[in-house]
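Model it.
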Amino acid sequence: MWQTIWRTVLVYIIVLIIVRIIGKRGIGQLSPFDFVVAIVLAELATMPMQYPNLPLWHSILPLLILALLEIVLSFAALHSYRLRRLLDGQPQIVIKEGRILKRELRRARYNLDDLMAQLRERGYPDVADVETGVLETSGRLSVVPRSHRRPLTPADLGIAPPREGLPVVLVMDGTVIKENLRQAGRDLQWLERELSGMGLSAGRVFLATMNCAGQLFINELDSE
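Modeled.
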């Protein structure tokens, strides 16, 4: 039993490291090549659990070789357009000026039901409202709506929008994120002054964020 446990833990750690090294693309963003690599990785990872008598290196060595090939090809694809097209394919325009391009659908082996489902998911059930529809290499549909269906923006009204950006997390679970604090141009003394003015300390804060305007949002820890 203990042999199975340590083999499982070891393979888990190796696969976790390999996945972290390969990249951060989500399942919905995987190219066909990456998807095949993920399937093979999963199959190789299960071998030590399925066959306890199999030497562990029979699984680990192919995992490392596969990870190395993936890394090498990924770096090569960064500098080669042809290699990217070979590995990932290229996007296809399947809707143009409100008309579905049947030939492109046939080339992509993409049926109308799938196309209409993706249009509905993006809030465009009527094809006539779509200026351009692009089938990405991941299989997802990108939609550029026609001008009369696009949401109104501040630029359309001649208004200068306020500065926007992601809020910075300063405290999480009672722990001060010093790196984020430094990037926000603040120091620990400033944070302590702000919190003490509210009768709080960092240890009593569940989440503290600061927006682009310098305003703090504080969510206290619930008392148990």
